[in-house]
Every structure is written in C-alpha cells, then in structure tokens.
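User: I've been trying to design a sequence by hand for this structure and keep getting stuck. Would you show me what you'd pick, starting by listing the structure so we're on the same page?

Assistant: Good idea, let's start from the same input. This is the structure you sent:
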C-alpha cells in the first residue's frame, strides 16, 4: 500500500455518518464538484417566449435520457448485474413519465417563468411530499427523483457533468450525493470508497455500493466542505466513522483494523454453505428479507436458505395504477425461480399509514398508523386482495411459496383472510390454472393482541412470524422515527421479551415453525436470545447472515435457554442489557 502522508498543517477532522457499506479503506480524497444546481432567481418571461422555454425543457429531458441510455449500454457491455441496470431503467422511466415534464410545462405556462425555475418549483413540491413520509425506505426514494431532476437541470444550464470516470488514480470519492448511475460506473480499485453529505441506508446508491463491496459512509452533512482533493482520509464503513487528515499513528491503527476486518470477512465465507446449527444440534434456519430485486444477488451470495419476508408493497408504490395479476406473477416468479426449491414467504400487501398507494388516501385518517393498513386494507379492498392472492398462488406452481398475512390482530381477521385465499383457489381451479394445493399459510404477530392469543392463532396456521419492528412500537406506544421518544425503543424491554417468549412457546407446543423477521433477527446477540426463547427461523438482510450464522454455530442452545430464563425475571431493559453485556462476552469472547 502507498505510504500516505498528511501535511502537518492540515487539521485532523473526525466525522460520524451512516455506514452503509462495510469495510475499512485509507486513501486520497477526490472531491466531486457537483452539488444541486440552483436555478436563476425567479423571473418572468414574455408570453411569446414560453414555447421556447418548453422546447428547452424537452431538449434537456431528451439529453438526460440519452446520457442514461449510454450509461446503461456501457453497463451491459461491462456485464454489470442486471439488478444495477434495472435501477438505471427506473430512472429512465421517471424521465419518460409525462407527469414530471407536464407539471413543469404547466408551471412555465401559468407563472410565465423559465424552465429552470419551473422545474425547481416542481421538485420542491415533490420533496415536500417525500419529507412527510415516515417509512425510511420510501423517504429515501426522494433521492432518485432529486438525482434525475438535477441531471435535467445540469443539461438546462449547460453545466459540466463531472463523473467518477474522470478519476486518474485510485481515490476516495467525496460528493454531496452520488446517483446510482455514478455508482454503477465505479471501478473497484479506482474508487476505493465514497463519502456523501446526504443519503441513507436503503438508498439505491447504498445498495449498489454494498453489492460491489465499496466501503461507504453517507449522511455526513458537510463532508464536501471539510475535505479537499488530495487529503488523506480513512473510512470505516461498519461504524460510519470518517477521519480526514489522520496522524500516522491513527493511520497505523486503522491499517491493522483493516487487516483484521478482511481476515474476519474471509473466515465468514467459510460459513456460507454450512448449516446454521448450534453446538448441541438445534437447527435455526437463516432466511432473507427482500424488498427490491436489487437485493437478490447479495442474498444468494451470503447463503440464505430462502426468503422469510418478501415485502410485496413495493410493487404498488410510486405509480398511478394497481399492478396486474400478470405483473405480480412475473415479479414473484423471478424470486421463486432464483431460490429454486427453497421457500419464499410472500407477505400480502402491507400499506396504509406512511405507505400510500393508488386509491388509498391515508391522509384522511386521523391516526393512520392505527387505521386502515395491512390486512385491514386488503380485506376492505377484496378485488385488490384477490388479484394478489391469485398471483401468489400461481407462483406456488413454480416453487415452494408460502403466503403470510400481515398485522393480524385477532381470529376474525385471520379467518376472513383465509376465506379470501380459499376463494382465490376456487377461481383458479375452475380456470384450470395450476397452484400448490397444500400451500402453507402463516400470520405475522406484530400487535400485542395477537401475541396474547398466540395459542389460538397457531391452531389455524402452518407457521407464524414475529415482526419485532412493529411489535415494539405498538407494545411500547412509541414512534421510532420521532426523536423525542426514540430512546424508548428498547428490544430488551421485559414486556417485549415476554411476548416473544409467549408466541414462541405457543408455536413450539403446536408443532409449527416460529420465525422473527424484524431487525432483531440480524444482530448476533439478539439472535442468540431469540433462539433461546425457541425461535427456529430468523429472517434478515444479506449482510447479517454470515455473522449470525458464525455466532450461532459456536453457541449452545441449552445455554441460550438458561440465559433467557435468567433475564425473564428482570424488571427493566437496562437490567437485561447489563446482564447480557456481562454474560455474552464471557461465553463467546471471540465474537465480542
């Protein structure tokens, strides 16, 4: 490695952001001088010039489409993953969507302003809409729209498109933000890692960075102002730590950490094809959570045993109409065929609250989080529900599909949902369309009422899955995106642990599988506790699988049970956490 020296006069800068792609890298900075293009201040244009502004706008949109088409072609030639190409396709679709360009044209005509200001106005309205969305994944889709509009704005103003392809030597790229098109053009070895002012864990840029294994930290707010081209920087993508102009002693520390991290990564690969089995023979199935198609490759590469949670609502979002049966079947079939013989759990539509789809206006509800969402929405809209159930059933003819109903709060809802499924089966039989007659049906335990009556629910389903994210929020009466009460989001709260224990015991007694598909499943310490309570399936993101597997393969199921019995008597989350902090490192010192 090149011996990197920081000039003595340079001040050391320590920053903390969101680590979205793990790994440690040390290298020179290259600041990509590209921010959001601000239009000229509002000014009127003569009525006779509006047509010229509209033509300028259309030309900028066309040039933007042409640019992305060229990038897409290069990606095909370089044989980059199909999922990466689909992200570019999604951006092209937005550029071709008449709504964006027509709304801008309306502003030009109505307010008699230049194309730049009209586009800026439309973008501001869209961003205001996105900021009101609580769901993190959906909120971060706003960056895609912003990237696209900024590209059009650059073409309108005649600014230079600076690109990561301009790099002459290996560097850490620093930018206000990076588009998926930027990330797709990154060459591993030339782009050592990247840092951005904005962004989040589930942005397309972050997903692509993980897939090409480039360490990245986003959400640094002002890294573009604090770093200069030529500076030395350290990125720790696991912790979100960034050090600009580090001392030689700090650099040596991180060199050693980098070596240790890479050695740890190599040891994890050893576990990919091994079963997740404790030292005393307890088998735990490790499954993947799937939101978008871009995650399929990573899930396969990390050795998941199937899909434990396929979040289907993403087929419905950001569109003006409902997906057809054929469209849904095509999407499900891709996943089912990819996992050839391994189970794929399709969760039926979970919308409402902050996930708004066509024909559903949650803004009319005073408290949408407690309102018409998830299974309630499906039961209220039988035609939409029927279309999805038919598509999922038909996909079951292609592989091992299971159907899971979200947010079941009582037996009436469960029976109604099962009745709708039987009706869809009857339709397909009469039409001579194939499906798995013995398809398994499950329920998600996400609200306290279903956790309390788990002993009744398990008698009428083939499996259950605990959605710990919502279970915590509804049990503890907190909104985890509300900074005023986020501190109360405690997975080790005794009430939460008792509910998980109650649900797991009910499933074990009934002889059916019980899984967890919330964030708790992907952390080794939490996974250990869940296993101790009797959970036999954990569903998580791709990058947690091997860590959890390594930990559980070195753990004893009997010891986990004893630990769970001990913590069941504690009164607070602090007491539970204190006990675990002392006990777990003693039991598994190497992991901690």
């Amino acid at each position: 490695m090149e011996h990197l020296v920081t000039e003595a006069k340079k001040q050391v800068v320590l920053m903390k952001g969101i680590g979205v792609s793990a790994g440690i890298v040390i290298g020179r900075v290259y600041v990509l001088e590209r921010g959001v293009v601000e239009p000229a201040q509002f000014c009127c244009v003569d009525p006779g010039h509006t047509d010229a502004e509209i033509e300028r706008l259309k030309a900028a949109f066309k040039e933007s489409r042409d640019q992305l088409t060229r990038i897409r072609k290069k990606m095909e030639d370089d044989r980059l993953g199909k999922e990466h190409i689909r992200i570019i396709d999604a951006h092209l679709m937005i550029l071709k969507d008449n709504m964006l360009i027509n709304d801008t044209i309306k502003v030009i005509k109505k307010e008699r302003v230049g194309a730049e200001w009209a586009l800026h106005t439309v973008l501001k309205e869209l961003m205001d809409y996105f900021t009101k969305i609580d769901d993190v994944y959906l909120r971060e889709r706003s960056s895609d729209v912003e990237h696209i509009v900024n590209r059009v704005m650059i073409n309108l103003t005649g600014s230079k498109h600076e690109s990561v392809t301009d790099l002459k030597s290996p560097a850490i790229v620093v930018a206000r933000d990076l588009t998926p098109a930027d990330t797709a053009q990154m060459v591993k070895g030339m782009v050592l890692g990247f840092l951005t002012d904005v962004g989040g864990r589930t942005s397309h840029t972050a997903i692509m960075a993980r897939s090409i294994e480039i360490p990245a930290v986003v959400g640094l707010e002002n890294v573009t102002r604090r770093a200069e081209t030529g500076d030395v920087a350290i990125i720790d993508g696991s912790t979100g730590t960034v050090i600009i102009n580090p001392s030689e002693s700090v650099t040596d520390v991180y060199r050693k950490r980098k070596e240790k991290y890479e050695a740890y990564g190599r040891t994890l690969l050893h576990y990919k094809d091994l079963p997740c089995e404790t030292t005393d023979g307890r088998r735990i199935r490790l499954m993947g959570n799937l939101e978008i198609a871009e995650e399929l490759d990573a899930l396969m590469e990390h050795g998941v045993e199937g899909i434990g949670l396929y979040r289907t609502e993403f087929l419905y979002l950001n569109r003006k109409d409902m997906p057809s049966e054929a469209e849904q079947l095509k999407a499900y079939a891709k996943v089912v065929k990819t996992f050839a013989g391994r189970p794929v759990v399709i969760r039926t539509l979970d919308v409402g609250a902050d996930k708004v789809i066509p024909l559903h206006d949650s803004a009319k509800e005073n408290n949408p989080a407690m309102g018409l969402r998830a299974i309630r929405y499906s039961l209220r809209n039988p035609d939409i529900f029927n279309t999805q159930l038919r598509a999922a059933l038909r996909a079951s003819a292609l592989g091992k599909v299971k159907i899971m109903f979200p947010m079941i709060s009582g037996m009436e809802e469960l029976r109604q949902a099962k009745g709708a499924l039987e009706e869809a089966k009857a339709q397909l039989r009469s039409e001579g369309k194939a499906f798995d007659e013995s398809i398994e049906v499950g329920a998600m335990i996400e609200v306290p009422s279903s956790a309390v009556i788990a002993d009744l629910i398990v008698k009428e389903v083939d499996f259950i899955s605990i959605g710990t994210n919502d279970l915590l929020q509804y049990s503890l009466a907190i909104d985890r995106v509300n900074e005023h009460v986020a501190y109360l989001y405690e997975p080790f709260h005794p009430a939460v642990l008792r509910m998980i224990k109650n649900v797991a015991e009910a499933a074990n007694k009934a002889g059916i599988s019980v899984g967890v598909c919330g964030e708790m499943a992907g952390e080794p310490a939490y996974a250990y506790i869940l296993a101790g309570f009797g959970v036999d399936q954990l569903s998580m993101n791709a990058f947690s699988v091997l860590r959890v597997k390594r930990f559980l393969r070195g753990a004893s199921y009997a010891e986990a049970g004893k630990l769970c019995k001990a913590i069941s008597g504690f009164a607070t989350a602090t007491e539970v956490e204190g006990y675990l902090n002392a006990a777990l490192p003693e039991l598994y010192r190497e992991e901690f």
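That's my pick for every position. To get oriented when you compare it with your attempt: The domain at 13-34+164-267 is CATH 3.50.30.10 (Glucose Oxidase; domain 1). The first strand starts at residue 13 and ends at 16.
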